[in-house]
Each structure stands twice: as structure tokens, then as C-alpha cells.
Design goal:
The complex is a heterodimer of chains A (107) and B (369). With 107 residues, chain A is an all-alpha fold. Chain A has one domain. Chain A has four helices and no strands. Chain B has 369 residues and is an all-alpha fold. Chain B has two domains: 113 residues, no CATH class; 190 residues, no CATH class. The longest helix of chain B has 28 residues. Chain B starts with 14 loop residues before the first helix and ends with a helix.
């Protein structure tokens, strides 16, 4: 494995792990479910992409790179939708949403 | 029910206010489920408060007009869902409500304090017996763990000629590169048949229990049932499931068909297939999925899979169960058509597992007590 690939892969994976750490911290520090969903969704998507890019540098062969790309694409498709559904449930079932955040009434 | 207020101004009350005005006195010692309401019991004035906070500067006529408009809004919703809010208080809704952001204001659900039940002598003895038997079971388990051989020691009963034979002769005996598939679908195929029959039996039992009680209730459709029929009211979810659903099924089929070559097989691949079907049902609703799979068809597929499994394995056992006299060639290890009967058996198991998962999900979501 070339020196460049090793370093680049490591940098990307460490960056991804750092963002995972931020996400975990946010999950425990934030109080309200919508804030926590926000943290989890955004950080997961970004961190998984970074880790997958790092692993692509490590793997090197086209087959593995394609699989990692597919994993990233799947997570980027599924993760926002899952978070969206959680948020939708919270918004539709919380009777006192305006206590938690500003609510814009739909027309 | 009349939602008009009594002062003759013909303002339409919101449902929360109406409940406030008409609800019986609530004793003050009841805790509210959400807790922390500073106004005490029955404080649905909360709602009004929130609206005033929204920043109408002159509180007189303007505010009134605002409330009236809002009241109209609430009224429309309440009429549609008054039954829902009234009749099914204790019911947990595991799905979306059929309208947008604005919700009818529900009564807060009071937390029911569990009363202390006076126990009779027999019930006391039950409790004592339960504690004693729990302690005994824990003791037995601890003693068993203490007398187990050390992990990986050479004289453990697990390390005998059987496992050595599986590892050394497995490839030539079964033709499966994946040793696990070779063990569970060739050496121990009878055990796997039992597991599949357990799944089938569970599904049949659930059908017996749930469909009967459904028939008793008559055929009137509640709002929940309508919701089950059309799925989640969310465009992103429908679009994304439309994109990913074929790929989920494709991946499940790949895992099933590749069971004798790579980790995977009927159980894991069938789980992926069943999960994909459940996702599709969850998002698109019964109306959509019943076009290609229903509970009845699930049971038919499961029964067919089990019969094919039994037939194939009977043939294998009648010809000596070792592949020597069997007419089915083992093929070259590593190609997709190899390992004799393992590929069709994997398909049978995969179908049974997928149909079990989907049928159980479908039955439990469409059942209404």
C-alpha cells in the first residue's frame, strides 16, 4: 500500500470518527427530540461518507470501492427519510409543540 | 355536539376549550402523564396562552379574530376525528394521523395509579414460590457455568471427531464452500426442517388467533384500518421506498442464492426479503402490497416450500444421505450450481422465513381489538 493512500485513508477515517463522536455528544447533551434527530441524521450521513471514503483508499480495488459507494448511497437515501419520519411523528403527536420550538402554522 | 360558546357571540370553540367546558371535575391529586403543568388540573388554557404569545400586539379585537379563525380550524378537524379523540384514549397510535401539523387538542391522559391489591393466601404463596424458583434456577445456571470446560480446551465435549470431520471433509461431502451452509442444510438438514416448521406453526397459530377475532368484529372500517390500507402520509418515504425496494429484494435473493458460497443463506436472506416486504407494507399500505402478496399467499408459499424441502430431503435420505448414490451431482465447488441439494433447500428456507416475517407483521398491524 502506497504511503499516500495510507495517510489519506487514515485522515478520512479519523475525521469520520471525530464526527461520530460529536454526534454522540450531541445526542446526550441536547434535550429535545427534534434537536437530537437533527444531530443524529446529519452527523451519521457525513461520518459514514467520510469513513467509507477512507476505506476506499485502504481497499484500492474497484469492486470494493463500488460496494462502499453503494453503502454510502444507501445510507444517504435511507437515513434522511428515517429521520424525517421520526420528526413527523413527533410533530404530529406532540400537542404542545409550541412550548418546545417556534411553530409555523401550515395554511 | 354543539361547539358554539354560550355567550351568543357565535364563536366556535376549539375542541380543547369544549372539553374544558364540558369535562367533569378532575380530582386535583391526579398526576398528568406529561407532568410539570404549572396550572394544575384541567389547564387547557395552555393553548390560549400559546396563541397570545405568538405576538399579536393589541389584545382586543384582533386577538379575538385570530382565535375565531383558529377555532374554525379546530372545529373542522374535531368533527372528523372527534370519535378518535374520544373513543380511543388508551389506544397507542403506531402510525401517522391522517392530517397535517395542526392536531385536535386532546385531553391529557391522566396517569392511572395502580392500586394496591389485597393478596389472598394462595397468591402470597405464588409469589414466594416464584422467588424461590427464580433463585433455584439462577443457582443451577451458575453451577452449570462453573462446571463447564474452559473455552477452547482440547477435552471439551464439543471438540470431537464430528467437528473435525465437518471442517476436514465438509467440502468433499457437501460441496459447499460455506461450511455453515453445509452443516445446517446437509449434515443437520432435519434440524433445519424442524426450525422451518416452527416458523410455519407460529404463523398458522397467529392466523387462527387474530383472524377469528377480526371476523367477530364485523367489517366496518375504522380510521386506523384506512390508515393501514394507504400507508404513511409522507412523500419522501414513498419515493425512497420506491427506489430502494427492488434493490432490497435483489440483495435478499442474492444472499439466499449465494448461501452455499458465502456467509448468508436461507435464514439471513429470507430475513432481508421479509424486512423489505414489511417496509413496503409500512410505507405504501395494504392496498399496495396486496396486489402481489397477501397472508393467504404467504401460507401457500410456506407450505409449498416445506413440502419441497421434505421431498428433497426424503430423496436424499432414501439414497443414503451421503450423496454417493444420489443422482444430483455436487458440481465444482465455488460455482453457483454446486453443493447438490443445498441451493434448493436454501431457497425453501428463505421463502419460509420471508413469508413468516411478512405474514406476522401484516396480521398484527391489520388486527383491531
Amino acid at each position: 500500500m502506497g504511503q499516500f493512500r495510507l495517510i489519506a485513508g487514515t485522515v478520512f477515517i479519523v475525521a469520520g470518527l471525530f464526527i461520530f463522536g460529536v454526534a454522540v455528544m450531541g445526542l446526550f447533551r441536547l434535550r429535545y427530540v427534534l434537536n437530537r434527530v437533527h444531530v443524529a441524521a446529519k452527523c451519521d450521513s457525513l461520518a459514514i461518507m467520510l469513513v467509507c471514503i477512507g476505506l476506499m483508499f485502504y481497499a484500492g480495488d474497484p469492486g470494493s470501492i463500488l460496494k462502499l459507494l453503494l453503502i454510502t448511497a444507501f445510507v444517504w437515501l435511507a437515513n434522511p427519510v428515517a429521520s424525517h419520519l421520526i420528526c413527523k411523528i413527533e410533530v404530529e403527536t406532540n400537542d404542545h409543540l409550541e412550548d418546545e420550538c417556534e411553530v409555523e402554522e401550515l395554511p | 355536539m354543539s361547539l358554539l360558546s354560550e355567550d351568543g357571540k357565535k364563536t366556535v370553540l376549539s375542541f380543547g376549550d369544549w372539553v374544558n367546558a364540558n369535562s367533569p371535575e378532575i380530582p386535583p391529586e391526579i398526576d398528568y402523564a406529561k407532568g410539570g403543568d404549572p396550572k394544575g388540573p384541567g389547564a387547557h388554557g395552555h393553548d390560549d396562552h400559546g396563541h397570545e404569545d405568538h405576538g399579536h400586539e393589541d389584545h382586543g379585537h384582533d386577538d379575538h379574530g385570530h382565535e375565531e379563525a383558529h377555532g374554525h380550524d379546530g372545529h373542522g378537524h374535531d368533527d372528523a376525528h372527534g370519535h378518535d379523540a374520544h373513543g380511543e384514549h388508551g389506544h397507542e397510535h403506531a402510525h401517522f394521523e391522517p392530517h397535517e401539523i395542526v392536531m385536535p387538542k386532546r385531553e391529557k391522559k391522566p396517569k392511572v395509579k395502580r392500586e394496591k391489591v389485597q393478596l389472598t393466601g394462595v397468591e402470597h404463596s405464588y409469589r414466594v414460590f416464584a422467588v424461590i424458583s427464580g433463585i433455584l434456577l439462577a443457582l443451577v445456571l451458575l453451577v452449570t457455568v462453573a462446571t463447564l470446560p474452559r473455552f477452547g480446551s482440547a477435552d471439551a465435549p464439543a471438540v470431537n471427531e464430528v467437528s473435525r470431520r465437518y471442517l476436514e471433509q465438509g467440502l468433499t461431502d457437501t460441496g459447499a464452500v460455506n461450511a455453515v451452509a453445509g452443516i445446517i442444510l446437509d449434515y443437520r438438514a432435519f434440524d433445519t426442517l424442524g426450525e422451518s416448521v416452527v416458523l410455519f406453526t407460529a404463523t398458522v397459530t397467529v392466523i387462527f388467533l387474530l383472524q377469528q377475532s377480526k371476523r367477530k368484529n364485523g367489517e366496518e372500517k375504522t380510521e386506523d384500518e384506512v390508515d393501514v390500507n394507504t400507508g404513511v402520509r409522507s412523500l419522501p418515504a414513498k419515493v425512497i421506498i420506491g427506489i430502494t425496494f427492488p434493490f432490497i429484494l435483489l440483495y435478499g435473493i442474492y444472499v439466499v442464492l449465494n448461501g452455499h458460497l458465502s456467509p448468508g443463506g436461507g435464514f439471513s436472506g429470507g430475513t432481508i426479503l421479509g424486512g423489505g416486504l414489511i417496509l413496503c407494507h409500512m410505507v405504501n399500505g395494504e392496498r399496495f402490497t396486496e396486489r402481489f402478496i397477501t397472508v393467504k399467499r404467504c401460507t401457500q408459499i410456506m407450505a409449498a416450500g416445506l413440502f419441497v424441502y421434505i421431498g428433497l430431503k426424503t430423496y436424499s435420505i432414501l439414497t443414503g444421505a451421503n450423496g454417493a448414490a444420489s443422482a444430483i451431482p455436487l458440481g465444482t465447488p465455488g460455482s453457483i450450481f454446486s453443493a447438490g441439494l443445498i441451493l434448493p433447500l436454501n431457497i425453501c428456507v428463505g421463502l419460509v422465513v420471508a413469508c413468516t416475517m411478512y405474514a406476522l407483521y401484516n396480521l398484527f398491524t391489520s388486527w383491531r381489538s
